[in-house]
Amino acid sequence: MTKTKISMLAIDLAKGSCQACAVGSNGAVLSNRAMLRTRLASLLAEQPVCMVAMEACATSHHWGRIARAHGHEVRIVPAAYVKPFVKRQKNDRADAEAIAEAAMRPTMRFVAVKSAETQARAVAFRTHQCLVRQRTQLINALRGHLTEFGLVAPKGPASLKLLENALDDETTDLPDPVRKMGTVYLEQIANLTEVIERLAAELEAATKTDEKLRRLCTIPGIGPVTAGAVAAFAPDLDTFDTGRNFAA
Q1: Distance (Å, rounded) from C-alpha 208 to C-alpha 218?
Q2: Cβ distance 35 to 46 under 8 Å?
Q3: I want to staple 103 with a disulfide (CB 3.0 to 4.6 A). Which of 53, 165, 174, 186 is the partner?
Q4: The pTM is what?
Q5: Residue 186, Cβ neighbours under 10 Å: how many?
Q6: Are 127 and 156 in contact (CB under 8 A)?
Q7: Residue 68 and residue 50: Cα distance in Å, rounded?
Q8: CA distance 130 to 199
């Protein structure tokens, strides 16, 4: 690979190996070769400053930060914008060339590289939502089991106390195995509730110290959890001309 002639390095990321397509200043492909994922960091460090293009995926922001640390200009292209430039049968070589061609388009829109802190917020939000879904699943399962024995409760965590009282009531006509399994459900739900409330409290505490989150919480209907989601997943708010554009 002639490093001095490379103006762009288009990388098709993968878990085990990556495809690196080197493009010259005239737009011609200089090389297109596969490499182990463990070699990619060394390539970015050794490569003279150039443009590094990648398709938006789970690891693109991580590699984008590494490329920027070595002085490269990073362009992350949305996957939907890369697909039209695949010229032949889909494979790693064709994908890498398509990324390069898409990144060279003057009107192409790119994804901003997220900081590690922003992605950490996304992990916190996703974890909170995942645990909420798991709790809802357990509550619905418990409701379903007890319905078969004539104990009906409304949906939602608010009705959980009714089920708990029914399980504790010795006069309720329930077999002992059902009471034992119900206790298992209640213990798991209580553990999840404790973690969910702790995560929600941490998100709320962050709104008091983070200026962006605090401003988002001033919007009617936006609370700490939603503000954390907007800050984690939405592009930089400075890229929007108006609130209408952000809403769209």
Answers
A1: 12
A2: no
A3: 53
A4: 0.76
A5: 18
A6: no
A7: 10
A8: 12
